[in-house]
Design goal:
Chain lengths: 394, 394
DNA sequence: GACGTTAGTTACGGTAACTTACTAACAACG
DNA sequence: CGTTGTTAGTAAGTTACCGTAACTAACGTC
């Protein structure tokens, strides 16, 4: 490491510690940061001074906590930078703008059916919504734009390889977005929606390691190691949907046999429950609850998930599973079935209990996660953003 | 990061780059290190000077390569520090002492059946062999001792939880070893033998990501991400042996059903081939090759492995698989079967070919890996070893 | 033997972080 | 109401690391 990078590294450390503290609990002081980062007080003061001058951090009113001089609370600056999340889903397009503090500066959503033929329209709409968000946020400097898509994305150029839910194949999403004037000169990335959803979960479980399973159209997911999202070669790590749970079993929409999704995807469940294709994902659970064979269906879902989870836990040696999406509302019922299956097959249980937990169901975690991801460059390299913020308004 | 750590960090960087260069190809010069580490020549010179003075690095005779001043080749110092690997296996106990250059300073091995009742004897023998190694190496300062055991080890205190191959359960291995005078004051760690074997493989594939599968008594393995061994919560990540490949299938020795090991472990194969339990692991492949149903057996192994591999590849999103142990000699025959199964089930194939490769069969990779692991502290924190080496002898 | 080239060193300067010692602002106590 | 103790934050000076620029060293080539 070169000495010039040392400052950058420490700036990043301080800003990250500051953000972590202010999301979790009470804001933190310079002295507190010094303790957490193991840097000295003068060093932290200098770094904080730099961050405050650059409008990346703001000081609050001094707070007295018992004896001693009151601390000056530090928080990520509000309203100085704009991070933008976009979401393209089967029935809507949305855009969310947040600032460094995670505060929502603007939220735009349009409900519209997105299909293969309307791909261009959806992309145009996304650009338009993004334009509205930028305007409503007061034309702040934009950190980055991250687009959530329910499909597979080529890591190099942001092409959507396939998004079954949208009926998209080979859509050059990022390229098309960049062609719009609203996005001129911006940095745009696309990501799988499930992988972005998990970012919201990571915020609530800093530094933890867990498997994340999300039921939406298919079964998506992610692997989180020590608070960091595992990527894999193509950025697809944690795609549990096509884990084989029964060799030669039911045929999956992907053409393979015995995939988890052949048993517990939205479509598989809908068909099994004898429901029409007009039942929304959100209503699937409720529709199931009306049926007499509910327990049986829950049991089937639980055993299928349990097998996939057990294998994943064996390979990864983790002990925590977080259920999200339409799995979250039935997590309590699924838990005993999954637990039984996991305990039959997973090795990790030898060392202690496996935790099967429910996600703290945030509204639209994918969109929020996309915006959070768009914030990341600032925390990774604060130095690059010094001098590029809008001066504080209030 | 504190400024004092910067030096340590750069020392580590330089030493690691130096070691990497000298294992792979021709030794490297100060100028070469400067290029690789992106530090400047004067900085590298200063750091190298420190390492040379500390007897961690040694200079060779200048080598002229075309025009310009000849370079001074730098290599990790030989015979100044001792890293010790121990191995406790079903039929032998061994000890290997190497120096920073990876050169073998002493190798001791005793063939003896190790079982539950002879656990104490085996540990005594290990300590004795270690004493011989230290003596033969000339009482050099010992970096660390790492013990390879074919079983599960508690990460906190080095207890062997279970080692089916040795018939051990709950053996306080590290504690017992430390009680011997030969190991007084040394740092001792225990590790699973398969996880240590993979270190030898990592040396040959620096920075790569792959799944490692090793056939010995059971099917062990490891997951390597960007050249780093994945640990998991208990240090068991990559234990593929008990991946479920057929729910409700054959009963495994672990008591579960449908495990991979229930189909392709040494015992399972031996029984299937109708061989007695006097066939050594090393001879298993040869014994199989004499049978008329060889192709069928290979097919069964390949399909079983393929399923486990496909699921692991799906979850981890990796594209390379390395086969080792008794799987290595039949890797060429297994490859087409595994490939077919993987292509039927794994998603990664959509993005390109999955590579199924054979390990560069080193002799006794577990023991060698243990010694390599025992070397690691020096590369991680060279500063701590400055002033603690034995002065060069030759 | 002058020149170009590559390896490595020397001298110097900038910068970041640490040490020490201070001031600031409060509570508790008598 | 001052004194004392405690915690937050600042100021000044020092240390140490690394980078820059310019050098020397040791070769091959023309």
């Amino acid at each position: 490491m070169q000495s010039a990078h040392l400052r950058e590294h420490n700036l990043s450390t301080v800003l990250a510690a500051l953000a972590a503290a202010s999301t979790s609990a009470a804001p933190i002081s310079r002295a507190g940061l010094a303790k957490r980062t193991r840097l000295t007080k003068p060093t932290v003061s200098k770094l904080v001074e730099e961050l405050v001058n650059a409008s990346l951090v703001e000081e609050g009113e001094p707070i007295s906590a018992g004896a001693g001089r009151p601390m000056v609370p530090l928080t990520p600056a509000r309203g100085t930078l704009l991070a933008i999340g976009l979401e393209i889903a089967a029935d809507h397009v949305a855009c969310l703008g947040i600032d460094l503090a995670g505060e929502v500066l603007s939220h735009q959503i349009e409900y519209r059916k997105v299909t293969a033929s309307s791909a261009e329209d959806a992309i145009d709409l996304a650009a338009e919504l993004l334009g509205r968000v930028r305007a409503e946020a007061g034309d702040l400097p934009v950190v980055e734009v991250v687009v959530a898509v329910p499909g597979r994305i080529a890591p190099d150029d942001g092409r959507v390889l396939s998004a079954p839910n949208l009926d998209w194949t080979e859509v050059p999403l990022v390229g098309r977005l960049l062609a719009h004037p609203e996005l001129a000169g911006l940095s745009v990335r696309a990501q799988n929606d499930n992988r972005l959803s998990v970012l919201t979960e990571i915020d609530h479980r800093p530094g933890e390691s867990f498997i994340y399973l999300r039921g939406s159209t298919g079964i998506g997911g992610a692997v989180v190691l020590d608070g960091a999202l595992m990527t894999g070669t193509h950025g697809w790590a944690g795609e549990f949907g096509h884990t084989v749970i029964e060799p030669g079993g039911a045929t999956c929409r992907c053409g393979r046999q015995g995939c988890l999704e052949a048993y517990v995807s939205y479509h598989a469940l809908r068909e099994r429950a004898g429901l029409g294709d007009d039942v929304l994902i959100e209503d699937l659970v409720e529709a199931l609850s009306l049926r007499s064979d509910r327990a049986e269906v829950i049991g089937m879902i639980g055993r299928s998930l349990g097998l996939a989870i057990a294998n994943a836990l064996n390979v990864l040696d983790l002990t925590t599973v977080v259920l999200s999406g339409y799995l979250a509302p039935i997590a309590d019922e699924l838990e005993p079935v999954i637990r039984e299956t996991v305990e039959q097959h997973a090795l990790a249980v030898e060392a202690g209990p496996v935790l099967i937990e429910r996600s703290d169901g945030h509204a639209d975690p994918a969109l929020r996660g996309a915006a959070r991801a768009a914030l990341q460059p600032v925390f990774n390299a604060p130095g690059a953003w010094i001098g590029r913020t809008s001066p504080r308004s209030h």
